[in-house]
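lol forgot to send this yesterday, sorry. struct tokens for the thing we talked abt
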């Protein structure tokens, strides 16, 4: 199904990314200094790559589980090769291996199947795709209560922008 992204969709994404920018710079937008520039660049860059990946996968007629399995099987030799070139495959701590298994099953497996299924079943991928901006909010709640990390005032401002983008996105659905 061909889906058009309207002006309000673009505005919604811009507003939401502005919230991410506020959070990443701790509210110091004018200096454009990130608390961790490399981390922020990698995080923002990966959102673009993931968004394109998920959008292009909506055109894939394969079963989502089969498609993800094939993608991971194809990617595994490249990951092993990168480890051999830039690092080592030696496992010095079983907790690290268990963490990797957890990430593989729950964060990269089950959640991806659910996400791709939502995109395939949606009438508007931009509407569903914009929900990814809720992830930082949920992560902050978990980090605050499980790890005890303080939440800065700029984080609240950024989250308000993220939610404002989601609201703009929702309002644009009925007005096309």
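and heres what i got for the seq, position by position
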């Amino acid at each position: 199904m061909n889906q058009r992204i309207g002006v309000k969709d673009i505005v919604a994404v811009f507003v939401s990314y502005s919230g991410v920018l506020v959070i990443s710079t701790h509210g110091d937008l004018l200096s454009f200094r990130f608390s961790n520039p490399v981390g922020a660049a990698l995080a923002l860059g990966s959102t673009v790559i993931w968004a394109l990946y998920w959008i292009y996968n909506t055109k894939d007629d394969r079963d989502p589980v089969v498609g993800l399995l094939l993608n991971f099987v194809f990617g595994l030799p490249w990951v092993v090769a990168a480890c051999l070139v830039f690092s080592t495959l030696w496992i010095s701590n079983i907790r690290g291996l268990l963490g990797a298994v957890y990430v593989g099953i729950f964060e990269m497996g089950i959640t991806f199947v659910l996400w791709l299924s939502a995109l395939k079943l949606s009438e508007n991928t931009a509407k569903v795709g914009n929900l990814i901006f809720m992830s930082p909010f949920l992560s902050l709640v978990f980090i605050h209560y499980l790890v005890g990390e303080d939440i800065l005032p700029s984080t609240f401002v950024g989250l308000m922008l993220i939610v404002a983008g989601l609201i703009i996105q929702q309002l644009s659905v009925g007005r096309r």
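The two ends are 16 Å apart (CA to CA). anyway ping me if u want another try
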